[in-house]
Amino acid sequence: QQQQSGMMSLASQVETPLGPMTVNISMNGVDWKAGMPMPSGWQEYREKDAGNPSGFLQYSDGTTSAYKIEIVNTATGRDDGTSTGNNTGIIPDSALMRCLATNISNTWYHVKITGMDNKMTYTIKVVGSIDKTWNWLESYQIGEVTKSHSPDQNTSLSSVFTNVSAIEGEIEIGYKGTNCWALLNAIMIIEE
Fold this sequence. Notes:
Elements: E1 7-8, E2 11-14, E3 21-27, E4 43-46, E5 68-71, E6 76-78, H1 93-97, E7 99-102, E8 109-114, E9 121-127, E10 138-142, E11 145-149, E12 159-165, E13 170-177, E14 182-184, E15 186-191
Parallel strand pairs: 3-4
Antiparallel strand pairs: 1-4, 2-3, 3-15, 5-8, 6-7, 7-14, 8-13, 9-12, 9-15, 10-11, 10-13
């Protein structure tokens, strides 16, 4: 299987001047289309093949974090997510509209964040969205904790994991669809 070199673009934003640092990642497995413009604080990870880690994630102040992202299971992409038309959703329209996906339902797929600090805790938010009304349910898992939300016409829901700790510098995020596509539009990493 031929591996394609992916382009990782990552962004971050500071929630408050003294608040936690946040890294916002838009997952774009749609490699046959050019990336969409991303608003400040967001960029794309354009990769769908396993084993191609990103470069270091950047904080919004321009400093480089120790974090990288890597797809564990090769997937595909979709570009039929929901759009608000004015970036008023939980994530920007460009992130809502494209995602990492697989059409194999009821099977866990994974991405991992490396370079995490084992002494810190994190809040991880994940979003799945599709511009359909198919009564789908997306499940996301970190460690033993599983959370779910509907991706149908989703512009406001996320699955939120708090007090997440890294194991050997890594946090692995599982995603699967229940009798449907598994969708992963965005990951937000918030240092606690």
